[in-house]
Amino acid sequence: MTTDTTNRQTVLIVDDTPEDIRVLMETLRHEYSIIVVTGGERALQLAHAEPVPDIILLDVTMSGLDGYEICTWLKSFEKTNPIPVLFINAKSREDDECTGLELGAANYIRKPFYPVVLKARIRNLLNQRGHLDGKRNQRITAVLGNKLLPCHHEPTLSTGRNLHQGK
C-alpha cells in the first residue's frame, strides 16, 4: 500500500497490527510516501529494492520474524545498514529499548506515542542521514578528485612544460 511518491521521502512501516498501521499512516501520510508491510520477510525484500526506503519504522512484536531479527538482518548488509531504523513498540521495559539500540536501531519510541514527537524524531533521523550522506559524498569526491587524471593530457614537468619540448 503506497501513497503519492512525488518528491517525498519514503517511510517503510513494518507492523502487523491494523490499528497501529492506521495510526501511523494517518500521522505520516501528508509528509511522506508510505509503504506498509505486515511481515519481516517482505520488509527485508523491500529494504533491498530500489529505491531503498529512507527510514524504517519497525514494531518489535510480530509473528514470524520479530523486529529485533529484522533489524539484525538490516544492519548486516552494506546496502541496508545506513537506513535508520526506528522501533515503535508497546514494550516499555528499559532492556527492550536497550536491545533495540544495541542491535543498531537509531531510536526507539514507545506506544502510545505523541504524533508530534514521532514526526520530530523521524525528521531528525532523516536530517542526520542526509547530513552524513552529504559528508560521505564529499569525502568520496575529494578522494576521487585527487586520483583522477584528465583524459587527454601531455606529460608535463613540475614547471608545467611539455616533456616532449625538453628543458
Q: Order of SSEs, N→C?
A: EHEHEHEHEH
CATH architecture: 3-Layer(aba) Sandwich
Determine the fraction of residues in helical runs and give it as a percent range. 40-55%
For the sheet with most strands, the description reads: 5 strands, parallel
Per CATH, the class reads: Alpha Beta
Proportion of residues in extended strands: 5-15%
DSSP summary: helix tally: 5
Calculate the terminal CA-CA distance, rounded to whole Å: 71 Å
- CATH-defined topology: Rossmann fold
Spell out the CATH superfamily: Response regulator
Rg, please? 22 Å
Q: What is the domain tally?
A: 1
Overall average residue pLDDT: 82
Describe, in plain words, how this protein is organized in 3D:
Strand 1, helix 1 and strand 2 form a beta-alpha-beta unit. The chain has a five-stranded parallel beta sheet with strand order 2-1-3-4-5, sandwiched between helices. The radius of gyration is 22 Å and the shape is globular. It has 167 residues and is α/β, with parallel strands linked by helices. It has one domain: Rossmann fold (3-Layer(aba) Sandwich), CATH 3.40.50.2300.
